[in-house]
Amino acid sequence: GWAGFLAFVVAMLALDVFVLHRRAHEVSLREAGVWSVIWVVIGLGFGGLVWAWAGSGTAQAYLAGYLIEKSLSVDNIFLFAAIFSAFAIPARYQHRVLMFGIIGALLMRGAFIAAGITMLEAVHPVIYVFGAVLLATAVNMLRGDGHAAPQHPRVLRLLRRVLPVTDQLH
């Protein structure tokens, strides 16, 4: 089941990136709305498959998680808009940048989850370190003075030493 699910997700990402949006174009509000409806229908349809395969309790858990994730993802729209604006990404390239960002985020999330689980199983008290990092991050976000991000953050300076990075859009 998991292999089929993973294959489906990879196939949908490949279809979106390499077939449906092969040519860069500005995505209209109507097009974005239509695709949003299509993906929601696919997500809800998967919930129907879960119900048929594993029963109503598992399907309810899936749908609850789906709705929570969907509602939490709305704040990402503002983050994407801020990033696109900060890096002056033209509208015609925003979908491509977004999709490769999503793919990168999925890969990194998988790697960090695997590393975190391994670390928690090996050294359980590390959960307190993870909690402290989350609390410190929350405090820093709450105390934020609204200053703009630095022009060259440390991570970007480190990347510039390792990767060929430019300030120009290519």
Can you tell me about this structure?
This protein is mostly helical and 170 residues long. The chain contains six helices and no strands. It has helices at residues 2-20, 29-54, 56-86, 91-122, 126-142, 154-162. Helix 2 (29-54) runs antiparallel to helix 3. The longest helix is centred in the middle third of the chain and has 32 residues, at 91-122.
What's the short version?
With 170 residues, the chain is mainly alpha-helical.
Features:
170 residues, mainly alpha, globular
SSE-based structural type: mainly alpha
Terminal CA distance: 40 Å
Count of helical stretches: 6
Helix content: over 70%
Low-pLDDT segments, ≥5 res: none
Biggest sheet overview: none
Radius of gyration: 20 Å
Average predicted local confidence, pLDDT: 85
Strand content: under 5%
Overall strand count: 0
